[in-house]
């Protein structure tokens, strides 16, 4: 039995920190949107004499292969269900940049949990998969949730409070500055805004953050990323120079380094190709997955 599953990237349409919890984690409020841009993962069962996992395509993504979230997902489920665990061959076709704020590692992890639930015949519920995902990373539950609901989500808490959200279709121009930003350092930054007021009725206000960015919707990490990375600052400024044509607002996703601009229907392919050719770093055009 073999499976090939798409592992999508995500963007944050906004990202607020509501406060810091007693356990040291931060309560967030955000909207996560999955894209039709992402990785592919192929899974196959192999000879029982082989190692539990043979992973290709992930070389160089982490210092040690066992630090990869794909491997961690396999190891976690094998520990809990040793009688179901069978050796696997997994191939990763990687397209999502690492350290880009697009959730690539978390998406791969979620995809692995979903695949093993089928390949190992675990028959786990959605909530059980989400609970395992939460042990592996804050963004992993969203990707599991989104896969099963075929929707984007309002994300709160530390990533575990998920509410499905149906948004209008949209195109996005993504720029990939050649910068790797430290999430841990950004969360510890003294200038980070950590006391945003929770925004009510997000589902009824999608127009505010779907295209334009009002004062109520922003990414708290954006000013810090711009301050620390000239490459991010340049890419964001480039997209902002196009806002006069789009009427939309450029912004950072996650803790960076990717920046994006929603592209309305009145911008044709010829103009987009010109914008991409003139950009200061690699780009792609993408759209929502769901």
Automatic annotation (TrEMBL):
Any one biological process term the GO annotation gives: terpenoid biosynthetic process
Keyword Translocase listed: no
Ranges that cross the membrane: none
EC numbers: 2.7.1.148
Presence of keyword GTP-binding: no
Gene3D superfamilies: 3.30.230.10, GHMP kinase, C-terminal domain (3.30.70.890)
Residue ranges constituting the GHMP kinase N-terminal domain according to the UniProt record: 68-146
UniProt cross-references to InterPro entries, sorted A to Z: GHMP_kinase_C_sf, GHMP_kinase_N_dom, IspE, Ribosomal_Su5_D2-typ_SF, Ribsml_uS5_D2-typ_fold_subgr
Keywords for this protein: ATP-binding, Isoprene biosynthesis, Kinase, Nucleotide-binding, Transferase
Entries under SUPFAM superfamilies matching the protein: GHMP Kinase, C-terminal domain, Ribosomal protein S5 domain 2-like
Name of the protein in question: 4-diphosphocytidyl-2-C-methyl-D-erythritol kinase
Protein's gene: ispE
């Amino acid at each position: 039995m073999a499976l090939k599953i798409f592992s999508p990237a995500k963007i944050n349409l906004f990202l607020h920190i509501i406060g810091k919890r007693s356990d040291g984690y931060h309560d967030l409020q955000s909207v996560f949107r999955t894209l039709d841009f992402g990785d592919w993962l192929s899974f196959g069962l192999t000879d029982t004499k082989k190692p539990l996992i043979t992973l290709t395509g992930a070389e160089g993504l982490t210092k040690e292969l066992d630090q990869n979230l794909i491997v961690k997902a396999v190891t976690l489920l094998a520990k809990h269900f040793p009688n179901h665990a069978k050796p696997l061959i997994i191939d990763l076709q990687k397209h999502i940049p690492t350290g880009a704020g697009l959730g690539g590692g978390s998406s791969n992890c979620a995809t692995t949990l979903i695949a093993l639930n089928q390949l190992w015949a675990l028959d786990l519920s959605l909530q059980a998969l989400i609970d395992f995902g939460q042990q592996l990373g804050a963004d992993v539950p969203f990707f599991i949730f989104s896969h099963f609901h075929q929707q984007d989500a309002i994300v709160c808490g530390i990533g575990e409070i998920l509410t499905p959200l149906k948004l209008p279709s949209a195109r996005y121009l993504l720029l990939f500055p050649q910068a790797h930003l430290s999430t841990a350092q950004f969360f510890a930054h003294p200038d980070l805004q950590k006391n945003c007021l929770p925004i009510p009725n997000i589902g009824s206000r999608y127009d505010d953050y779907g295209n334009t960015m009002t004062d109520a919707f922003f990414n708290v990490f954006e000013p810090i990323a711009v301050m620390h990375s000239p490459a991010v600052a340049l890419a964001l400024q480039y997209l902002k120079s196009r806002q006069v044509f789009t009427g939309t607002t450029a912004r950072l996703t996650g803790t960076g380094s990717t920046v994006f601009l929603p592209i309305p229907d009145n911008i044709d392919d010829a103009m987009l190709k010109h914008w991409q050719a003139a950009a200061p770093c690699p780009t792609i055009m993408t759209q929502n997955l769901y």
